[in-house]
Design a protein that fits this description.
Length: 189
């Protein structure tokens, strides 16, 4: 199941990372760079929804796809955040919160799977909301201009990425609370 249509779409998100980063080093006008990077991020981020939909529709779900999908999302978000911090469009503290949470919850999920308690940290609506806010904030910050001469994407992106940071902490606390009974039960043994 390495090369089904949904899995190939997931791989494109991983391949997109150096392309999006590379745009910011290309010799072109800053506004053009911003527009290209934003368009690329939006297209590749949309594959997150589309690959899951196609996997279910085409009956091509797999354990490998279930593993690769969140990894691709985390790579795309973390790389984009690092670019935004480097360009001084996102606060390093926000990036540390979001990236740190991704590492911590991934490790927690792996551990819970090893002890047979993965259902206690299954994806929750709060985590999906956090991801959605991130996926809106990041392209706003990548664009960093006025959209339709009305929306200042830098301002909106900053507010949204801070909201994503709050949701990140909230969702981490939620998952830790769900895992705590299992952790306590294992430690007591």
């Amino acid at each position: 199941m390495f090369f089904t249509i949904p899995t190939v779409m997931t791989w494109t998100r991983i391949v997109a990372i150096p392309l999006i980063v590379g745009v910011f080093y290309a010799p072109m006008e800053p506004a053009t760079r911003n527009l290209i990077a934003t368009a690329m991020f939006v297209v590749f981020a949309a594959t997150d929804w589309l690959d899951g939909f196609l996997a279910r529709k085409l009956n091509q779900t797999s354990a490998f796809g279930a593993f690769l999908d969140p990894v691709a999302d985390k790579f795309l978000v973390c790389a984009s955040l690092l670019v935004l911090v480097h360009m001084q469009r996102a606060d390093v503290f926000v990036a540390l919160i979001i990236i740190g949470r991704e590492i911590a919850i991934s490790a927690l999920r792996e551990w819970m799977a090893q002890i047979g308690a993965s259902k206690s940290v299954a994806v929750h609506m709060l985590g999906k909301l956090k991801t959605t806010v991130q996926m809106v904030a990041i392209p706003f910050l990548l664009y960093d201009g006025r959209l339709f001469d009305i929306i200042d994407t830098g301002v909106w992106g900053t507010w949204l990425i801070w909201l994503a940071a709050v949701l990140t902490v909230w969702s981490m606390v939620y998952y830790l609370q769900k895992a705590l009974p299992e952790i306590r039960a294992r430690v007591a043994k």
